[in-house]
Amino acid sequence: MATRHGNYIGGEWTEAASSRSFDNRNPADTSDLVGTFADSGPDDVERAVAAAHEAFPRWKALPAPKRGEILFRAAEVLLKRKEELARDMTREMGKVLDETRGDVQEAIDMTYYMAGEGRRQFGQTTPSEMPDKFQMSVRQPVGVAGLITPWNFPMAIPSWKMMPALILGNTVVVKPATDTPLSVVNLVKALEEAGLPKGVVNMVTGSGSRVGTPLMSHKDVGIVSFTGSTDVGRKVSEACAPQFKHCHLEMGGKNVIMVMDDARLDLAVEGALWGGFGTTGQRCTAASRVVVHEGVYREFVERFAAGAKALQVGNGLETKTQVGPCVNASQLETVESYVKIGREEGAKLVAGGNRLASGAHARGYFHEPTIFADCSPKMRVAYEEIFGPVVSVIPVKSLEEAIAVGNSVDYGLSASIYTQDVNKAFTAMREMYTGIFYVNAPTIGAETHLPFGGTKNTGNGHREACVQALEVFSEWKSIYIDFSGKLQRAQID
Ligand code: NAD
Q1: What is the mean pLDDT of residues 213-225?
Q2: N or C: which end of the chain has fewer CB within 10 A?
Q3: Based on the number of CB atoms within 10 Å of its own CB, is 457 exposed (0-12), middle (13-18) or buried (19 or more)?
Q4: Same domain? 329 vs 207
Q5: Is the C-alpha dihedral spanning 16, 209, 389, 297 positive or negative?
Q6: Quick one: 262 and 182 in the same domain?
Q7: What is the CATH classification number for the domain harbouring 322?
């Protein structure tokens, strides 16, 4: 019997108002029912926001270092349960165990990191223009934060939003992706066990339209932090605009690895395989384009294709598996449709190209790691986000052309260059208009203590992680204290 999970509202686990639930199945084996979850709607969102709203004054009043102690204990709980939580995550969304362990570890790192921010949250003091006057700036929380999260980093991304929100004194309503509610249930349980007061974190599971939409539009939600597709991000932005809510968006990517003719090809091939097919290509930072100098183009393509064909596709719980399934039927259909588009556009298929649907793959959403070579930059496979195991390789004649192609897409999340030449590395580092850049490493693998996010259609100017995350979840207050005992007039000459 699969476990039935409720919403978490005001410190209680409760059914959806409708009493309906939805199934969460393992994408590597759809006969494996991971659990059933509350199929919630606007009434549940209303209750969750009310609980968060009510809990806000008490949570805000708790000294930040004390809030940090609770987060620290939650990190300890996550650490203790890491293996079990990673297994749950692989079962619910398919990526291989090494990667789900990494996902849980990121949540642990972020929770420790933000626990430490309980003793920092530094403001400024500056000298006044006037005598006997003191001035400083302090952060203040905003209120209720509505968090809407995707399925590809089911615990890391919710933690990137939740922990900075909490340490600053905000309360939270989180809506997990419908494919990955269990990982958020596990995260919330760790906070509950750590002693988080009732109502400070609330979780409502269900669809984007019935839970996400009412949450982002709710008048008592002052911050909306969203990670997901650019199309939905645009709707979030529009919903936040009338009330001028804090609106933080992390969206799609079409990231590029640039391989120069002086690169170490063994490293570049290995990096392109990991960047392109790690997490089945379902990372916002996935290297779905590889731009290669003509001097090494043929050799690179040959070695890259051979590497892709050798990858083991299967159930992420098995140790030999290197590439798991697509997360659901619709994502698999998207991959198949882009493979068709690539063929029709005249790109050269050099590896993969097919769904895997027999034997050990019969009950999952598996697709071969697929490479299109000889792409032009504006082909749809080389230009649009696919979010699956499909990589396009584009030949170029120079570093300048590589940079121009790299920058030619609508997204700006991550880019990388493989070169031994420090001048080329620094030129690319300066010229690529992205939020993340790597030298001699693939486009994936961000760490929690540097800002994370992208330019253009990837983001709206904010950053996740690091101290930059504090900006999204707080407002600055500048404070002036006049101890002169008389009226001193500022800005009057
Ligand atoms: P998605 O946009 O379909 O869904 C994201 C979340 O929004 C889910 O919780 C979903 O239920 C909710 N949602 C969907 N429609 C909604 C609506 N109308 N109103 C309110 N909420 C709604 O994205 P996804 O398929 O879960 O994730 C894949 C996308 O996320 C890719 O585009 C990927 O690049 C992006 N992503 C970006 C980052 C980043 O940091 N830049 C990280 C991970 C994923």
Answers
A1: 98
A2: C
A3: buried
A4: no
A5: negative
A6: no
A7: 3.40.309.10
DSSP labels, 357-402: -SGGGTTS-EE--EEEES--TTSHHHHS---SSEEEEEEESSHHHH
Domain-located, residue 448: no
Q: Categorize the per-residue pLDDT at 268 as very low, low, confident or very high, splitting at 50, 70 and 90.
A: very high
**Surface-to-core class of residue 319, CB atoms within 10 Å of its CB (0-12 exposed, 13-18 middle, 19+ buried):** exposed
What pLDDT shows up at residue 492? 81
Residues at CB less than 6 angstroms from ligand 1? 148-153, 175, 177-178, 208-209, 212-213, 216, 227-229, 232, 235, 250-253, 284, 385, 387, 413, 454, 458
Question: Using CA atoms, how far apart are residues 119 and 80, in angstroms rounded to an integer?
Answer: 24
Quote the pLDDT of residue 490: 83
Of the residues 106, 117, 240, 284, only one is catalytic, namely 284
pLDDT score of 446 more than 80: yes
CATH number at residue 212: 3.40.605.10
| Greater pLDDT, 238 or 492 | 238
Are residues 291 and 217 part of one domain? no
How high is the pLDDT of residue 72?
A: 98
Lookup: tokens for 480: 């002036």
pTM: 0.98
Distance from the CA of 109 to the center of ligand 1, in angstroms? 23
Is residue 493 pLDDT above 80, yes or no? no
